[in-house]
Amino acid sequence: QVQLVESGGGLVQAGGSVRLSCAVSGGTVRNYAVGWFRQAPGKEREFVAGISRSGGRTRYADSVKGRFTISRDNAKNTNDLQMNSLKPEDTAVYYCAADRLGSTSSISSAQYDYWGQGTQVTVSL
């Protein structure tokens, strides 16, 4: 059974940085396309960033492009999201998700088979 566990969330001031990590157990991270999503209170879950199964292609939501970077560490079997220049509107619960069939990361949450429990990121003024 594949399990994803996010870590690294917390409280940060606007303009600061946070690095989230998604640890994969019961599977190998390079066998999945992985996406990061977030959900703010009262809002729908939205795509943030994704990385293809090969690790060679990444994609980002326009709202985070140039500030967030998704990466993979095959040795640690993790998928990370480096978030810089954080804004209060980045406040949300962040989830990582793995797609066992797709080769590229999808912006649709319906494409993903496995989800982590989420980690809270709060950006204060």
Question: What does this protein look like?
Answer:
It is a single chain. This protein is mostly beta strands and 125 residues long. The chain is 0% helix and 49% strand. The protein has strands at residues 3-7, 10-13, 18-25, 33-39, 46-51, 58-60, 68-73, 78-83, 92-99, 114-115, 119-124. It is globular, with a radius of gyration of 13 Å. The termini are far apart. The mean pLDDT is 96.
Layout: helices, strands, pairs:
Blueprint: E1 3-7, E2 10-13, E3 18-25, E4 33-39, E5 46-51, E6 58-60, E7 68-73, E8 78-83, E9 92-99, E10 114-115, E11 119-124
Parallel strand pairs: 2-11
Antiparallel strand pairs: 1-3, 3-8, 4-5, 4-9, 5-6, 7-8, 9-10, 9-11
Features:
7-stranded mixed sheet; 125 residues; 49% strand; mainly beta; 11 strands; globular
Tell me, briefly, the overall form.
Answer: globular
**Count of DSSP H/I helices:** 0
Largest sheet entry: 7 strands, mixed
Helix content: under 10%
What does the radius of gyration come to? Answer: 13 Å
Along the chain, the helix and strand elements come as EEEEEEEEEEE
Low-pLDDT runs of 5+ residues are none
Mean pLDDT: 96
SS-derived structural category: mainly beta
Tell me the β content.
over 45%
The number of E-state strands comes to: 11
N→C terminal distance: 40 Å
Tell me briefly what this model is.
By secondary structure, the protein is mainly beta. It has no helices and 11 strands. Strand 7 (68-73) and strand 8 form a beta hairpin.
